[in-house]
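note to self — DONT lose this again. spent like an hour looking for the file last time. sequence + predicted structure for the chain T wanted, 148 res
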Amino acid sequence: MELCQLVRAWPKLQILKFSRYVTIDTATVVPTFHGLIGLLRLCPALTSLALVIDTTKLDDIDLINPSGGCFNTCLNNLALGNSLIDSPVNVALILSGLLPRLDRVNLDCWNIIRIYDPSQGIQARKEWESVNSILRGFGVLRERRIEA
Protein backbone atom coordinates (compact mmCIF):
# COMPACT_ATOMS: atom_id res chain seq x y z
CA MET A 1 0.00 0.00 0.00
CA GLU A 2 3.01 2.33 0.15
CA LEU A 3 2.65 2.81 -3.60
CA CYS A 4 -0.92 4.02 -3.12
CA GLN A 5 0.13 6.42 -0.37
CA LEU A 6 2.72 7.87 -2.72
CA VAL A 7 0.29 8.61 -5.58
CA ARG A 8 -2.77 9.58 -3.54
CA ALA A 9 -1.94 13.29 -3.97
CA TRP A 10 -1.80 13.03 -7.78
CA PRO A 11 -5.19 11.81 -9.08
CA LYS A 12 -4.65 13.49 -12.46
CA LEU A 13 -1.25 11.89 -12.99
CA GLN A 14 -0.84 10.68 -16.58
CA ILE A 15 2.71 9.31 -16.67
CA LEU A 16 4.47 7.50 -13.84
CA LYS A 17 7.86 5.85 -14.23
CA PHE A 18 9.72 4.03 -11.51
CA SER A 19 12.72 1.79 -11.98
CA ARG A 20 12.32 -0.90 -14.62
CA TYR A 21 14.87 -3.11 -12.92
CA VAL A 22 15.35 -4.08 -9.31
CA THR A 23 17.56 -6.70 -7.77
CA ILE A 24 15.04 -9.11 -6.35
CA ASP A 25 16.11 -11.03 -3.29
CA THR A 26 14.54 -11.98 0.02
CA ALA A 27 14.88 -8.41 1.35
CA THR A 28 13.36 -6.72 -1.70
CA VAL A 29 9.75 -5.65 -1.41
CA VAL A 30 7.96 -4.71 -4.63
CA PRO A 31 4.27 -3.98 -5.17
CA THR A 32 1.91 -6.80 -6.15
CA PHE A 33 -1.18 -6.70 -8.33
CA HIS A 34 -3.04 -5.34 -5.29
CA GLY A 35 -0.75 -2.29 -5.35
CA LEU A 36 -1.23 -1.90 -9.09
CA ILE A 37 -5.02 -2.08 -8.69
CA GLY A 38 -4.90 0.59 -5.98
CA LEU A 39 -2.66 2.77 -8.15
CA LEU A 40 -5.05 2.50 -11.10
CA ARG A 41 -8.02 3.43 -8.87
CA LEU A 42 -6.22 6.49 -7.51
CA CYS A 43 -4.84 7.62 -10.89
CA PRO A 44 -7.54 6.90 -13.49
CA ALA A 45 -5.93 9.24 -16.05
CA LEU A 46 -2.68 7.24 -16.30
CA THR A 47 -1.66 6.67 -19.91
CA SER A 48 1.87 5.39 -19.29
CA LEU A 49 3.24 3.41 -16.36
CA ALA A 50 6.63 1.81 -15.70
CA LEU A 51 7.37 -0.10 -12.51
CA VAL A 52 8.40 -3.50 -11.23
CA ILE A 53 5.75 -5.62 -9.49
CA ASP A 54 5.57 -9.15 -8.17
CA THR A 55 3.02 -10.90 -10.38
CA THR A 56 3.47 -14.22 -8.57
CA LYS A 57 1.38 -13.13 -5.57
CA LEU A 58 -2.24 -13.41 -6.67
CA ASP A 59 -3.81 -13.53 -3.18
CA ASP A 60 -7.58 -13.26 -3.60
CA ILE A 61 -7.35 -11.79 -7.11
CA ASP A 62 -10.38 -12.80 -9.15
CA LEU A 63 -9.10 -13.67 -12.62
CA ILE A 64 -12.51 -12.87 -14.16
CA ASN A 65 -12.94 -9.49 -12.48
CA PRO A 66 -9.56 -8.60 -10.95
CA SER A 67 -10.39 -5.06 -9.85
CA GLY A 68 -13.99 -5.50 -8.81
CA GLY A 69 -15.28 -3.49 -11.77
CA CYS A 70 -12.71 -0.69 -11.72
CA PHE A 71 -10.50 -0.53 -14.79
CA ASN A 72 -8.39 1.96 -16.70
CA THR A 73 -9.21 2.64 -20.35
CA CYS A 74 -6.57 5.35 -20.78
CA LEU A 75 -3.38 3.37 -20.14
CA ASN A 76 -1.76 2.19 -23.35
CA ASN A 77 1.91 1.92 -22.35
CA LEU A 78 2.88 -0.46 -19.55
CA ALA A 79 6.46 -1.45 -18.80
CA LEU A 80 6.87 -3.93 -15.97
CA GLY A 81 10.64 -4.35 -16.24
CA ASN A 82 12.01 -7.46 -14.61
CA SER A 83 8.84 -8.14 -12.65
CA LEU A 84 8.61 -11.65 -11.24
CA ILE A 85 6.32 -13.90 -13.28
CA ASP A 86 5.36 -17.55 -13.10
CA SER A 87 2.02 -17.74 -14.93
CA PRO A 88 1.74 -15.78 -18.20
CA VAL A 89 -1.91 -16.81 -18.60
CA ASN A 90 -2.92 -15.48 -15.17
CA VAL A 91 -0.91 -12.28 -15.68
CA ALA A 92 -2.54 -11.70 -19.09
CA LEU A 93 -6.01 -12.35 -17.65
CA ILE A 94 -5.45 -9.85 -14.85
CA LEU A 95 -3.88 -7.18 -17.08
CA SER A 96 -6.67 -7.56 -19.63
CA GLY A 97 -9.26 -7.14 -16.88
CA LEU A 98 -7.55 -4.07 -15.44
CA LEU A 99 -6.45 -2.47 -18.70
CA PRO A 100 -8.86 -3.42 -21.50
CA ARG A 101 -7.13 -1.21 -24.10
CA LEU A 102 -3.65 -2.58 -23.41
CA ASP A 103 -2.46 -4.66 -26.36
CA ARG A 104 1.00 -5.48 -25.02
CA VAL A 105 3.44 -5.00 -22.18
CA ASN A 106 6.42 -2.89 -23.23
CA LEU A 107 9.46 -5.20 -23.23
CA ASP A 108 12.02 -2.69 -24.50
CA CYS A 109 13.77 -2.73 -21.13
CA TRP A 110 14.79 -6.36 -21.70
CA ASN A 111 17.10 -5.14 -24.47
CA ILE A 112 19.10 -2.92 -22.12
CA ILE A 113 18.82 -4.48 -18.66
CA ARG A 114 21.85 -6.40 -17.49
CA ILE A 115 20.30 -9.46 -15.94
CA TYR A 116 22.11 -10.79 -12.89
CA ASP A 117 21.23 -14.41 -13.77
CA PRO A 118 21.20 -14.62 -17.59
CA SER A 119 19.37 -17.96 -17.72
CA GLN A 120 16.61 -16.62 -15.48
CA GLY A 121 16.43 -13.45 -17.60
CA ILE A 122 15.95 -15.42 -20.81
CA GLN A 123 13.14 -17.47 -19.25
CA ALA A 124 11.45 -14.39 -17.77
CA ARG A 125 11.54 -12.58 -21.13
CA LYS A 126 9.94 -15.62 -22.80
CA GLU A 127 7.19 -15.57 -20.19
CA TRP A 128 6.55 -11.85 -20.80
CA GLU A 129 6.48 -12.51 -24.55
CA SER A 130 3.82 -15.15 -23.82
CA VAL A 131 1.82 -12.52 -21.92
CA ASN A 132 1.96 -10.30 -24.99
CA SER A 133 0.88 -13.13 -27.27
CA ILE A 134 -2.12 -13.82 -25.03
CA LEU A 135 -2.99 -10.09 -24.85
CA ARG A 136 -2.93 -9.93 -28.67
CA GLY A 137 -5.30 -12.90 -28.74
CA PHE A 138 -7.65 -11.14 -26.32
CA GLY A 139 -7.55 -8.09 -28.60
CA VAL A 140 -8.60 -10.21 -31.59
CA LEU A 141 -11.50 -11.62 -29.56
CA ARG A 142 -12.60 -8.09 -28.56
CA GLU A 143 -12.53 -7.00 -32.21
CA ARG A 144 -14.60 -9.99 -33.23
CA ARG A 145 -17.12 -9.27 -30.51
CA ILE A 146 -17.41 -5.64 -31.63
CA GLU A 147 -17.95 -6.70 -35.25
CA ALA A 148 -20.63 -9.28 -34.33
